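Q: What residues go here?
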């Protein structure tokens, strides 16, 4: 059996009495596309920053690519990771070409911009061009980033995460600011990268119905891992209620999906029950 790309063992972050993440264990193989869902404050973003080596857990052990993640290995391991954090409202008000924004992804997260991966300038240009082509933004390579729409900026930020051709891609709500057709293109691209490049993708998303036909599994997170549903599995009602409380509605979707339940009434095989979370 091949070594997992990610192996978390009993990870805790935050005070022992009120942790943000608690006793979290998880293994993710190469080429796997995992969606992570959970309510606000569940620790989803924190989990990604811990795996990215940007936040140190208070307890537990992390292996990435078969190596222990610690202060000595962190920078070396980060070279194989692409990370798209949540978009923040405060964008720097400075002129910067799309090319330069994507070039920032060629450096380690905590390294100066001039300490890039490529000594060869042409190789750098080719990598940036390729990443922008993947997200269909290559015709904006010389555009001022500030002049782009919110959706275009998000696609450039995704190109920045992809530019180093990472083995592991961590995405925190990457579909933010994208319209539905663009969201679908994004999920198809990620599925293709997993299948053809053996990339491993962890993606935090709110809409399980939108991602379910693309991902290999859905992890239900709320401080702990409540459930990890793989293809063909159902997320039990009690898991949804543990994560979201009693204010969870069951709605019908015309697609078979991870986490769905067959209707108790006689339905066609195409009609499944699916859970969405809503707070009153």
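A:
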């Amino acid at each position: 059996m091949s070594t997992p790309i990610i192996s978390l063992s009993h990870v805790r972050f935050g005070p022992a009495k009120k942790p943000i993440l608690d006793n979290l264990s998880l293994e993710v193989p190469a080429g796997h596309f995992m969606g992570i869902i959970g309510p606000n404050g569940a620790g989803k973003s924190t989990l990604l920053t811990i795996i990215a080596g940007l936040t140190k857990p208070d307890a537990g052990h992390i292996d990435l690519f078969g190596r222990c993640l610690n202060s000595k290995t962190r920078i070396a391991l980060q070279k194989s990771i692409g990370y798209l954090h949540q978009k923040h409202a405060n964008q720097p008000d400075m002129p910067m070409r799309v090319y330069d924004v994507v070039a920032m992804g060629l450096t380690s997260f905590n390294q100066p911009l001039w300490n890039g991966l490529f000594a060869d300038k042409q190789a750098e240009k080719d990598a940036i061009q390729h990443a922008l082509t993947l997200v269909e933004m290559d015709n904006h390579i010389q555009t001022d980033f500030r002049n782009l729409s919110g959706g275009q900026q998000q696609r450039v930020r995704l190109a920045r995460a992809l530019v180093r051709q990472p083995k592991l891609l961590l995405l925190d709500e990457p579909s933010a600011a994208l319209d539905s057709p663009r969201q679908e293109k994004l999920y198809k691209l990620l599925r293709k990268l997993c299948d053809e490049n053996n990339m491993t993708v962890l993606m935090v998303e709110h809409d399980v119905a939108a991602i379910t036909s693309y991902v290999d599994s859905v992890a239900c997170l709320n401080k702990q891992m409540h459930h990890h549903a793989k293809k063909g599995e159902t997320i039990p009602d009690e898991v949804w209620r543990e994560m979201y409380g009693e204010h969870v509605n069951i709605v019908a979707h015309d697609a078979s999906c991870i986490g769905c339940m067959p209707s108790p009434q006689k339905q066609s095989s195409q009609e499944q029950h699916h859970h969405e979370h809503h707070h009153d």
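A: Context that may help when evaluating the design: Residues 93-165 form one domain. The chain has two domains: 1-80+166-245, 93-165.
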